[in-house]
Amino acid sequence: MGTMVLLTTMALVVFTLFFVAATANAIIISLLISLAVAGGFLAFFFLCLTGIASLIVAAPRCSEIPELGDLRDIFEKKYGKENSLYNDLLSWNYE
């Protein structure tokens, strides 16, 4: 009877160790995947931010594209003329 109890206890301990290892592995993998997804969203955010900043800087400098002038007007209505004036003051860097 003692051998059966020892064998059953050892099987339960081994099963518990495997179960704990698998649970820890699943938690670590899900954490890494969620960090990768968050990094992807962060990269997309900075990509959009760079694109918007490029449009803001290009709007007063590219007069042959009328859509950029419309975009500049939209930015002036939404954020005020001080940003537009600041861009005009910086235009000497690009001429």
UniProtKB/TrEMBL annotation:
<feature type="transmembrane region" description="Helical">
    <location>
        <begin position="36"/>
        <end position="58"/>
    </location>
</feature>
<dbReference type="InterPro" id="IPR005061">
    <property type="entry name" value="Ist1"/>
</dbReference>
<keyword id="KW-0472">Membrane</keyword>
<dbReference type="GO" id="GO:0015031">
    <property type="term" value="P:protein transport"/>
</dbReference>
<keyword id="KW-0812">Transmembrane</keyword>
<keyword id="KW-1133">Transmembrane helix</keyword>
<dbReference type="Pfam" id="PF03398">
    <property type="entry name" value="Ist1"/>
</dbReference>
<protein>
    <submittedName>
        <fullName>Vacuolar protein sorting-associated protein Ist1</fullName>
    </submittedName>
</protein>
